[in-house]
Design brief:
7-stranded mixed β-sheet, single chain, 23% strand, 9 helices, 2 domains, alpha+beta, YojJ-like (1
């Protein structure tokens, strides 16, 4: 039975010194960590691939400390890193693992079932080697820490993974939030102070941020929706992320929010009036912030969501920043905040007041 990671000198005999230097490092230094490494790898792999129903449903990872035993049957050109590489098709494959290096090497033996895996292991006298067998369609790992001959040591784990939210899914969530929580004054308190005079509520942008955080947390209930604390300089508004391990997150959307308005919040009837130039500058800043924070936090998507509470609100204002947003790959979304249900109805196609054909 193997009690430690593979010996680097033995591995070098197979793959060569130059290849060895290029292999990624890993914190897995013992077979007991092998199922953890593989579980993380399979979860990430399945988020990038669909199970091919025409291919075998299983694969296996066998940890051995004498890799040269099967060197003649090893395809050293097809090795995967548990940390970064999800391009190699793993269905119907047996991999010899090197957990101390965070890598696994495919053998040149095709398998069609778990029975074939069992046959290969016995044929190569690997019955006592720590082994992980994966059922891909069932998202299950079968972990044999003392080898497949010892059923008493068998442990089974389910792999829980979440398909990362796509742009289309985030758009659906944002649209639903707009229509149900901020579209008109009757949806939520705090959006408007004096809607009949187009005076917004105090801290309009922060109010939208709080409401949207709750809505997205409900919609993406397997993910974490975070906002950066007010004490931090250059803070993002909202970040949707998935925790993969203690120190590993996949951040798939950063949302920068901008509320543009005709008037500042005021308890008087003579509030400060904002110019169109002020609104445009706010949106330009928003694009820059979405781009900078997305890169800083390594998020897959960057959004600028404009909530337009102006008296003459229209999506045409987004044309002012569409060019720079395209250059920086920032997604623009525009949502009008109507000061009354009547004005919302009048804006709809078919209304006698509508300018929309």
């Amino acid at each position: 039975m193997c009690t430690g990671g593979i010996n680097k000198e033995i591995l070098q005999d197979v793959v060569g010194a130059s290849d060895l230097l290029e292999l990624p490092s890993s914190n897995a230094t013992a077979p007991s960590l092998l199922p953890i490494e593989i579980a993380h790898y399979i979860r990430n792999y399945m988020e990038n691939h669909s199970v091919n129903s025409g291919a075998p449903d299983c694969c296996a990872f066998v940890n051995i400390d004498q890799l040269r035993k099967t060197a003649s049957n090893l395809d050293t050109s097809k090795h995967i890193s548990f940390n970064i590489d999800y391009n190699i098709d793993i269905q119907g494959k047996i991999f010899l693992t090197t957990p101390s290096l965070g890598a696994a090497y495919s053998i040149n033996t095709a398998i069609t079932s778990i029975g074939d895996i069992d046959h290969y292991i016995h044929e190569n006298n690997l019955e006592d080697s720590p082994t992980v067998i994966v059922s891909l369609s069932q998202n299950k790992i079968h972990w044999y820490p003392d080898g497949i001959e010892d059923d008493s040591s068998l442990k089974q784990y389910e792999i829980h993974y979440v398909q990362y939210a796509t742009e289309a899914e985030i758009d659906i969530a944002l649209k639903h939030f707009h229509e149900t929580q901020v579209l008109t004054p009757s949806c939520s308190k705090g959006i408007w102070s004096k809607p009949e005079k187009y005076i917004p509520g105090e801290n309009l942008e922060q109010t939208i941020q709080e409401l949207l955080k709750v809505a997205l947390s409900f919609y993406f209930d397997k993910s974490l929706v975070a906002k950066e604390g007010s004490s931090q300089v250059g803070r993002y508004d909202l970040l949707i992320e998935q925790k993969l391990s203690n120190h590993n997150f996949h951040r798939y959307a950063l949302l920068e929010l901008k509320a543009i308005k005709s008037y500042a919040y005021s308890e008087s009837d003579n509030p400060t009036q904002y110019t169109v130039k002020y609104a445009k500058e706010a949106l330009v800043d928003g694009v820059d912030q979405a781009d900078i924070y997305r890169n800083k936090w390594d998020a897959k998507l960057g959004y600028l969501c404009c909530y337009d509470a102006r008296k003459d609100a229209s999506k045409e204002i987004m044309d002012e920043v569409s060019g720079v947003a395209d250059d920086k790959n920032v997604i623009l979304r525009h949502y009008i905040l109507y000061n009354s249900s009547k004005n919302f109805r009048r804006s709809q196609p078919g209304s006698a007041y509508s300018t929309v054909d």
